[in-house]
Amino acid sequence: MTAARLHHRPTRLHATILVSLANLATIAAGTQPAAAQGLDTILITAPEPVAIDQPVTLTAEDTAPRADLAEVLREINGVNAGRMSGHGLDPIIRGQREHQLNVLLDGAGIANACPNRMDPPTSFGNLAGYDTVEVRKGVTTLTRGPGGSGGSIELTRNTFERAAETGIQSRFGFATSSNGLTDQGSADVLMSNGHAYARVIGQIANGENYEDGEGNGVPSSFKQRSGTIIGGYRVSDETGIEVSIDRNRMLDTRYAGTGMDSIFDNATIYRLDGRLGDLDGPVDAVRLEVSRANVDHLMDNYSLRERTAPMPMEAPAESHTTTARLTASSRIKQIEIDYGLDFQRVEQDAQAINAMTDMLMFRQWPDGQTDQVGAFLEGDWQLNDDNSLRAGLRVDRFESEIDANLDKGIATSMMVPADIRDAAREARSDTELSALLRYAHTFDANLSGHVGISRTAVAPNLTQKYITLLMNGMLAKVGNPDLKPEIHHQIETGLSWQNERLSTTANLYVDQVDNYILQYRQIAGLMPMTTSFRNVDARLYGGEIDLRYAVTDWLATEAQLAYVRGRNTSDSRDLPQIPPLSGNLGVRAERGALDGAVVLRWAARARAIDEQSGLDTTETAGYTVLDLNAGYEITRNWRLEAGVDNVFDRTYAQHVNRAYSGAFGDPTSRINEPGRTVWTRLTATF
Q1: Which residues in 385-473 belong to E strands, given as ranges?
Q2: Exposure b/e, 186-211, CB count within 10 A at least 16 = b
Q3: What global pTM score does this model have?
Q4: What are the residues facing 624 on neighbouring strands?
Q5: Is the pLDDT of residue 37 over 60?
Q6: Is residue 21 pLDDT above 90, yes or no?
Q7: 298-319 burial, b for 16+ CB within 10 Å, e for fewer?
Q8: For the chain, what percent of residues have pLDDT higher than 90?
Q9: pLDDT mean across residues, the chain
Q10: Where are the alpha helices (DSSP H) in 379-473?
Q11: Cβ-count burial of 651 within 10 angstroms (0-12 exposed, 13-18 middle, 19+ buried)?
C-alpha cells in the first residue's frame, strides 16, 4: 500500500506523531510489530473507530541516535527537555516537569537519587532497550497513577505479546557521531516456544564532551552500561506471568550545569507482571504489577574536573521506589470499565561530606519517605459509531516524613529557621480527589474532535518539602514542609481533519492550578538569597498545530507549531522555565529502499521569564537550525542511516536548561546545544 509505505519510517519528521498528536480518533495511527521481526513500525492510514486516548509513539528507528532519551522526546511537538549535560536531560510537557509528569519504565516507577536531578527517571531508559516509548500530553487517563497533570511518559516492552511467535527474534544496532556520542551499541534477543520465553537486552554507550557551534567544549562526557534479563510464561494471549531484572550503570558523567559531576549512578529494577484474562463472570481480566527500583549515586567536585571550590566535597545519595498496581476490567454492555488499587513508596537519602576529613557537612534528604495509596475507577463508553465517552474517578492518600533525629538535616540544622525545623518534624498527610471526563466525536469521514476536562492532584516531592543545601557556609536552599498538593483544573479541546493528501490536527488547553509549587529566592536580612518553595495560584495555557501534505505518493511536507504560556496569577508574574513558541518545517521523501528528510527547527526568543525563581537568569535568543538525514534498506534485514544535525554549525541554546556552572563559564549563560554533528547508524533485524 503506497500510503502506508510513505509513513513506514517517520525518521525526524514524525509522520506517526503528526496524525496521532491530538489524541483524536478518526486518524488512528497504529504502530504494531511486524509479523516477521516484531520490530518495525507501519502507520495504518485508514480511518479507525473513535479512540479517545491515542498516545504519541516512538521507536528506536524514529530518531537520530542520542545520548539521552529526553533528547529524543524533544522531537515531539509540545515536549521539551532541560539540558544540564549531554546526559540526564529533564523532560517537560506543555510547560510542566518533574513530579508533574508520570514516568514508567515497563510499568515500574523510579525516583532520582540525585537531589539536583542529574538522574531524572528518563535517564535510566533508552529506546534501544524498549520496544516503544508512549507520550501522553495532558490528562487522558487516571489508571496509571496519581498526578500526571502535564502528561505521562511510558517506556514499554511488548515481550509478552511478541513471545506468541515461536523461534528467535533479534535486533542489533551500532551508532556513532562526530560530536558527543562516540559509540552506541545494542543487542536484543528474544527466544520463545510460544509459551515459555526469555529475552536478553544489552547496551553500551560512550560520550565525549561535545562542542557548540563556536567550537567551545561543553562538559558532557559519560559512560553507560545497561543490561536486562526477562523471563516469562504464556498460558494464552491474555494469561501469563513475567519477571525481569534491569541494571543500568552511568559512570564518570560530567555536568556543565552543576557544581559537581557524577562518579556513578547505578540503578537496578526488579519487576513482576502477572495477568489473568478471558475470565467468566463479572470480571473479564485481572493484572498485578509489582516493582522495586534501587538507585545508588555518588557525585563530587574534584574527580572529573579541576576543583575551584575551597573544599573537596562528595555527596553519596540513594533512592528506593516500590510500586504495586492491581487492576481489573469488566464490560457492561457498551461500557468497558477499568478499576483497581495502586501504591508507591519513595525513599530518598542524600548527604554532603567533606572529602578531606570525612565530616558530614549537611543532609540534603534526611532519610525521607513519601507514600501514596490510591483507588481508581474509569469507564469507556462507545455511545455509537461516532461518539465515545471516558469518565474516571480516583482518590489518593499522600503521606510524607523524614527521620527528624538525624543531625544536620532540615529538622536539626541550626542554619534552618526554627519554624521550618519545627514543621519538618511532623509527618504530613493529604487525601485528594481526581476526576476526568473526555468526549470524542466523529463529524464525518474527514473531521473528528474531542473535549476533555479534569481535576488532578500533584503531591509535593521530598526535595520541595525537605531539601537542605549549604554553600560557602550559608543556607542556599531549604524545603517547605507546609506545602500543599497542587490541584490542576484543565480543559482541553482538539480537532483533526484528513483527506487523501492533507492531514492536520490542532489542540488547545488551559490549566488553572491552585497551590502551584513555585521555586523562589528570598532575602533573609543580610544573608545571601536562599531558594525555597511556596504555593501560588497559576495558569498554563497553549496549543499545538500539526500539518502534513502528501505532494506525491513518495514526497511529503510537514510542519509543527507549539506554544505554552505560564503565569503566576498570585503575583502577576511569568512562571519560570516555560519554553517559547517553537516548531519545525520539513520535507520528507521515501522511494523504494531509500528515504530522507530535511528539517528546519526553530524557536522564538524567550521573553517571558521569572528571574526571582533562580531558574531563569536572562532572556534566551531564538534560533533556526537545519538537519538532514537519509536511510537505505540494504536488505530486508539490514538498514543504514546517516545524517547531519545543525548543518550550518549554529551556536544556540534551548531556553529550558540549567545555568552554566561557574566552574566552566559564565553562570548567567545557557548551556549551548551541540554544534554540527554527523552521525550514522547500522541496524540488523532478524
Answers
A1: 387-401, 428-442, 447-458, 468-471
A2: bbbebebeeeebebebbbebbbbbbb
A3: 0.90
A4: 602
A5: no
A6: no
A7: bbbbbbbbeeeeeeebbbbbbb
A8: 81
A9: 89
A10: 418-424, 462-466
A11: middle
Give the C-alpha separation, 293 to 268, whole Å. Answer: 6
**Greater model confidence, 60 or 282:** 282
Q: Taking the alpha carbons of 456, 462, 468, 471 in that order, is the dihedral positive or negative?
A: negative
- C-alpha grid cell, residue 586: 520539513
CB 290 within 8 A of CB 271: yes
Residues in the chain, total: 686
d(Cα 591, Cα 631) in Å, to the nearest integer? Answer: 11
pLDDT exceeds cutoff 90 at 4: no
pLDDT of residue 10: 36
Which residues is 317 bridged to in the sheet?
297, 350
Domains held by the chain: number: 1
CA 626 to CA 174: how far, in whole Å?
A: 24
Residue carrying the nine cell digits 545524517: 643
- On the question of pLDDT at 206 being above 70, the answer is yes
d(CA 505, CA 449): 9
Which residues does 8 contact at the CB level (< 8 Å), separation at least 6?
A: 40, 41, 42, 43, 590, 595
- Under a CB-based contact definition with an 8 Å cutoff, are residues 359 and 368 in contact? no
For residue 331 the three cell numbers come to 464490560
Which amino acid type is present at position 53? D
What pLDDT was estimated at residue 53? 62
Cβ-contact 52, 71 below 8 angstroms: no
Chain CA centroid to CA 555, Å:
31
The CATH number of the domain holding residue 666 is: 2.40.170.20
CA count, 13 A, side-chain hemisphere, 190: 29
Burial 528-552 (b: 16+ CB within 10 A, else e): eebbbbbbbbbbbbbbbbbbbebee
List, as one string, the DSSP characters of 247-283: EEEEEEE--TTSS-EEEEEEEEEEEEEEEE-S-SSS-
Q: Which domain holds residue 65?
A: 2-302+311-685
